[in-house]
Specification:
globular; mainly alpha; 4% strand; ABC transporter involved in vitamin B12 uptake, BtuC
Length: 353
């Protein structure tokens, strides 16, 4: 394998070329730098968040507990059993949400086309509410199945209502907002129809929190994410081509219908695995691809590794802030994400004016 700076062809910016028997690709140097910076942010925020909590522990003690088996057993128990799973879950949730956002924004060719806005996240939330409250099945795998089924049915409903002869991204977003509002009303109706205990349990989960998650939930969630991640890798190549239009994509050997269906299923699966474990963590799927696109100066929101690292950094930092403020991480992301959505809508309106 050879890795070297691109010299012979001027692509407008520097690239690193990987060329061997199986892989031949160009990676923008700026993307590598952005990924390295994001990794540092994730590591720093993750270690800092492990010092926060009712049991006071210094950063030095956290590092010693992580790498020295002979360190204080109480500190090791706090770090390994309570705080490390939370940080790892924040990384996993951020990566999954950001990748899902990148898939749907590339699919709709619109920065507002994230699963938060077009109702797929609400559909997954509705499926988990039915599973938890009505069917009384409260394990991760049952909730994941409920989230996946709810998200997929919602996605098919939105696409069916939004598609006439062709599909407009604007019509898709408007229909998605309408379906999302309807499912939100149904969820509220279910919660006021059940006992107070069930409603409180569902409301606590619905706030979006990583506080009570451990390795029991992390292991199956990681396995599901790994499978979906491997299946989504080809989309990194096909979706940016599909952004040029169906005719161009077909001419380049890509089947638009099959690619859209695969992207739809995989994007909903990513949302489902997060919703089942931690509840809805809103606006990460909306913001992460756009922030990544600006950091890397990419032409597409679908650049897998930088997008996932951006999402992971956002969730880890948001969860650290949530611990300091003693609120669920979903409250932090909704508060900051709402401001970002307002700015995004204003920017889009200004561009059309």
């Amino acid at each position: 394998m050879s890795v070297q700076q691109q010299q012979s062809v001027d692509f407008g910016r520097q690239h690193v070329r990987i060329d061997n028997a199986r892989i031949a690709t160009l990676i923008p140097t700026r993307s590598l730098v952005v990924c390295a910076v994001l990794l540092v942010v994730i590591l720093a925020a993750g270690l800092t968040s492990m010092t926060i909590g009712a049991y006071s522990i210094s950063l030095e003690s956290v590092l010693r507990a992580l790498f020295d088996p002979a360190s204080d057993p109480d500190a090791r128990q706090v770090v390994f059993d309570w705080r490390l799973p939370r940080v790892l879950f924040a990384v996993l949730c951020g990566m999954a949400l950001a990748l899902s956002g990148g898939i749907f924004q590339s699919l709709t060719r619109n920065p507002l086309g994230s699963p938060d806005i077009i109702g797929f996240g609400i559909g997954a939330q509705f499926g988990v509410t039915l599973t938890m409250v009505v069917l009384e099945l409260n394990t991760y795998m049952f909730k994941a199945a409920g989230a996946l089924i709810g998200g997929l049915i919602t996605a098919l409903l939105v696409y069916a209502l939004a598609t006439t002869k062709t599909m407009s991204s604007f019509r898709l977003i408007i229909v998605g907002i309408g379906v999302s509002a309807g499912l939100g009303s149904l969820t509220s109706w279910i919660l006021i129809s059940v006992s107070v205990e069930k409603a409180m349990m569902a409301a606590t989960w619905g706030a979006g929190s990583l506080a009570s998650l451990g390795f029991d939930q992390l292991i199956p969630a990681t396995l599901v994410f790994a499978v979906v991640m491997v299946a989504a890798l080809p989309l990194n190549r096909t979706l940016p081509v599909l952004e040029m239009g169906d005719d161009a994509a077909t001419a380049l050997g890509i089947r638009p219908g099959r690619t859209r269906l695969a992207a739809l299923v995989l994007g909903v699966a990513l949302i489902a695995l997060v919703t089942a474990a931690a509840g809805p963590i809103s606006f990460i799927a909306l913001a992460a691809p756009q922030i990544c696109q600006r950091l890397t100066r990419s032409n597409t929101p679908m650049s897998t590794l930088p997008v996932m690292l951006t999402g992971a950094a956002l969730v880890v930092v948001s969860d650290m802030a949530a611990q300091l403020l003693m609120v669920p991480v979903g409250v932090v992301t909704v508060s900051v994400g709402g401001l970002y959505l307002a700015w995004l809508l204003a920017a889009q309106y200004a561009q059309r004016a």
